[in-house]
Amino acid sequence: MSLSVCLNSLPSSFTQSHSTIPVLKPRNPTIFHTRKLLIKPHPIRSVQEQFDHQQPPTRTTPKWENILSDAASLYPLYVTAGGVVACVKPSVFGWFVERGPASYSLSLGLIMLSMGITLKLRDFFNLFLDRPFSILFGCLAQYTIMPTFGLIISKALRLSPSLSVGLILLACCPSGTASNVVTLIAQGDIPLSIVVTICTTFGAVILTPLLTKILAGAYVPVNAAGLSISTLQVVIGPILLGSYMQTMFPQVVKAITPFSPLFAVLTSSLLACSVFSENVVRLKSSMVSASLASDASPFLKIQSHLSGEFGLVMLSVLLLHLAGFLVGYIAASIAGFGERQRRAISVEVGMQNSSLGVVLATAHFPSPMVALPPAMSAVIMNIIGSSLGFFWRNIDPSESNNNPETDGSKQC
Description:
By secondary structure, this protein is an all-alpha fold.
């Protein structure tokens, strides 16, 4: 049998013209020739690569979906415009404010549901297992940097108890979905941003009430159990429901998914501006009393307004988000992450789920001023985040700092 194998491996011309030669003579050349054939898979590989290269794209995004996506990316513009309307004519949002806090909770639940229908839990867990260090670092930075600066800023500016609780509550909230849009604009690590947002949102059930009670409990009584239950109802429940709908009704979810980002940003804008308009009347009354007490020039009047309660709220929220963006980036740099990961972590830390802060503040604290920092954050945070995103968009991340070895996830 071995002889027949050796004969079959020889060329036919060779066997016909050299039939008298012993079969053992070409043994070594034959084996050498066979090995060359066995260890030469390159032509097959290149053919496969060429075939893959020639495959047409499976799906082209329709133009109307691109329009919806572009419209959703204008979230900062919607919030800013709504804030101006709330200042000029607060009654525009009266129909929504009158139905609060139930309308606030319902709107946030719908926002989280729109997030849930785009979430595949299996893909989420796979990505978490693939990059645990970078994800855990982003979550840890979120729940340490912001709460710490929330407490420091409230004490440094000597905010009133209600405003201090509102600022600390905002700082203890998880990352917001707007951070994913800003990370995309900033050329950051999109998968990392999405998973950190999801993880911090799930963690908010325990960490947001616990940190708020620890840091703000000295100002007012904080019902940590009530905050936890509300977070579970308006955040975790809708996300899990949306993920379940994606599994059970894929065709329905596929039809409504293109509309969900725009719906989420419009609903979030309505929620933030409604709470802001609720406090505008109170702020305006303090401004009017200050104006009547002074005959100074308009510039000095504006200065006096900004130096009052309204200005303190703006300054505290501004400082909080600036600290989050800056310290988040520095912490990621010290940890050895690449440039894309630094940008993603910076945005995740600096941008909060202000809608959750608004809902928790209106549902669990008697003073409406507690909801003012989260409501004002929706405007200030998105202006800062969008500006930073467009700034980074013009600076390409360094490829040398963006390889997997510097991601940090390999350190586990």
